[in-house]
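Field reference: sequence -> structure
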Amino acid sequence: MLNPIEALRPFFETASLNPHGICLLWRPELIWTHAISDVLIGLAYFSIPLALGVFLYHRRDVRFGWAVWLFVLFIMLCGVTHFMMVWTLWNPDYGIEALIKAATALASIVTAVALWPLLPKAIAIPSTAAMQARIDERDAALVEARAAMASMVRMEEHQRQQSRLLEEVHRSEARLRSIFENAAVGIARVALDGTFLEVNESFCQIAGWRREELLKGGFQRITHPEDLDADLAHLSDLLAGRIGSYTMEKRYIRSDGRSIWVDLTVSLARTAGGDPDHFVAIAQDVDEKRRSEETRDLLMREVDHRARNALTVVQSMVRLTEAAEPQRFKAVVSGRIDALARAQASLSQRQWQGGWVADVVAQELSSAAPREQWTAAGPEVELRPEQVQPLSMILHELATNALKYGGAFRPDGPGGRRMEPGSTRRLAADLARVRRSSGQPASAPGVRLEAHGPPGHRAGGAPRSDLGGGWPASRADL
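Structure field:
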């Protein structure tokens, strides 16, 4: 059986063939003219499909891209044939050249066969001018819609114009009706006496009433009493011709009793003779924006008030603090400012809603002494916001005095200490004032505080306390 390679060998045999240059008698002017021309043609054929390939790579949305790729293959094979023609000027490899031409012929046939069925579809693709015309048409429609909205008030005047414009007026009314019903803002036509003549769905949703309920009455019925006089004054100016339109923020009372803020713009539609005919009102819901502004203003006023109050307290502390040495003065003032800061932090955590006596006690005494050196017991007593800061300062003073004098004790001879008689009484009096300011009885049961003397402290060699034995202690009932 004949080997396929051996069978094809004669096809590629070049021994009996002459290069193409011999046909040109090896004349240099002919040889180089053919060679240079074929090289340039081949380069051009390679450049064109390369450009097409780059284009298709970046524009993958191009329709019939596969047909362009057929052209890329066909043109590249044409370029290869020209390069092969340069080669055969000096080398008689006509078998290889024949295969390349056969491949080029196959690609050409496939491309040609695919091109003709594709031609009607390509022709059907809209041209750039046609697409631009469609875009212009849509833009014109959008401009027309905006213009129709601006001319809504004047449209009824046009109804009384010359009869030759009647058909155009009817078409405009149809467009305006669509805009009126589908507008995102509330639109209402209102009679001169305030009765609603017509409202769109957005107006019903903003005002919080059904359409039939609104058409039974006037805007006076749903306007907040505090805003009605200002609204009526604007309408009077509008009817008198002193203003052409007005804008105001007012409140509507919804059917559920809740009030809502709206931004209202009102203008006057006139007859063809210039007489007032009806009002046109456009309402936009600004309730959330208005309430956010009110909350912001309230917060700013509250922050300003509390900042001024804190500065006043700090100034008073600095003025009233007495100390023989600068370091002692600094320590006392810093401690009092820290107590003020803790009170402010406690109020902030509770969103300035006040606090509890037990929390303030634990916070201040824990900052001054370990937990085992004091106890607090009693029912919960709630404080108003303005009471938290004074109580914190009172407890701070108690705690610092307790540390300074050994649990409200003063030195009493060598190695001995005694209770400061007025310390707990002053604390109880201060707390009674705080209790009275909150509207509670001064003697109501509250928190009991006990400050214990340090372990190991003895008076005269034995434990002693003015309260009757045990470690010295200071107690205050709040």
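Note: The chain has 16 helices and twelve strands.
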